[in-house]
Amino acid sequence: MSTNRREFIRNVAVGAAGITIGGMATGFSAKSYSRIVGANDRLSVALMGCGRRVGAYYASLQDKNNNVDVAYICDVMKKQRDKVGKDLNGKVSGKAKLVNDIHEIWNDQSVDAIFNATPDHWHAPGTWLAMQAGKHVYIEKPCSHNPREGELLVAFTKKYGKVVQMGNQQRSSKESQEIISEIHKGAIGDVYKAVAFYANTRGECPVPKKAPVPEGLDWELFQGPAPRVEYMHDIWDYNWHWYGWNWGTAETGNNATHELDIARWALQVKYPDYVECEAAKRHFLNDGWEMYDTMDATFRFPGNKVIKWDGKSRNGHKTYGSDRGTIIYGSEGSVFVNREGYTLFDRSGKKVKDSKSSGSEAGTALGGGGDMTDGHVANFFNVIRGTETKLNSPIEEGAISQMMTHYANISSRINKSFKVDSQTGRILDKDAMKLWGREYHKGWEPPKL
User: Fold this and answer.
1) What are the tens digits of pLDDT across the range 320-358?
2) Number of H helices and number of E strands within the chain?
3) What domains sit in the chain, N to C, each tagged with a CATH number?
4) The model's pTM
5) Calpha distance 307→217 (Å, rounded)
6) Residues 353, 336, 282, CA angle at the centre, nearest 5°?
């Protein structure tokens, strides 16, 4: 797409509240129209973060139907961006430039969209800075490191009028969409409860030790928005998930996001009015893992509806017959749904209907990827172009589901249950509200709205 057309699209947003073309109203607001790049225009995209998740995008980037150029491959660790560059060389359109510093991408006006697959502490800041620079964003879960960041993301999306899709890709599963629709139409009567669960066999985690920064790693930029700490052996790699709250959001932010989102979607609830949680480190007590590895959380919603979370990071017992999924209970039956499809039961427990996915999406394997991710990415591209009008997981919706993981984490950290304002989502507890936001390294504070 030409620079002139890009500038025209950006400038449209400055106009009136509605757009008229050829004497005919489009139905788009100025901000909505500013999202559209044209149904036949090639999108220029950048990869921000080249860790385990980035491989899940390969199929979408190579799919000619998506009509994209890969302009940049960015990571603070040289060996990671080099690997992705090698993986995609000759397989995708565009002359991808390998860069260390994301600022170079933000400053390039030709880039339309960014895939944000960085560590958790970078998700929200990397997204609002990308929007501020005029980019659309596919943001991996968790969309935020803390509740305040979720609020800010929603506000910045409205301010800049950009397309922001959260990477809870089960929202793009045809089977999940089908059964949730049936549930909403009364397939199992009045829905009152959901149990979301996850079981994995994560092993011992090394105890961090003081060490020199690895060759090729920009430790300063890895830390980015987070308060500065001394480098310790291997904390930049996947185990940052478990080494304290500076970067990660524990297993609940890492994985519960998906199943809790399905549960909330099925029950048609927004914010709970009460949260209680029991969580602790139960395995390898002397290893470097600083977070809980086992959690049971309960969220009570208006209308006497309940969602429970059963998370086991280091015990692979399949309590519910699967390593992850969601069970939804209604007055006339129940449903089991996961990434492989769903099974519908009547009130006696007899199977009524069974629908399995013809594709595949990874369950507990690191990185994941599959047909759901492919569909989720295509939906993101199509909304940017205007060929689809609705994101499957807009940040306004994703941030609400993400809030549930933050509630559970906060409850576990203060070892206390608390009430929540079910209209605003704000916690009605002074101790809990101390963890509503976070401290930022100087110069990385959120921009003012």
Assistant:
1) 999 999 999 999 999 999 999 999 999 999 999 999 987
2) 14, 17
3) 1-34 (no CATH), 171-207+219-373+396-433 (3.30.360.10)
4) 0.91
5) 41
6) 160
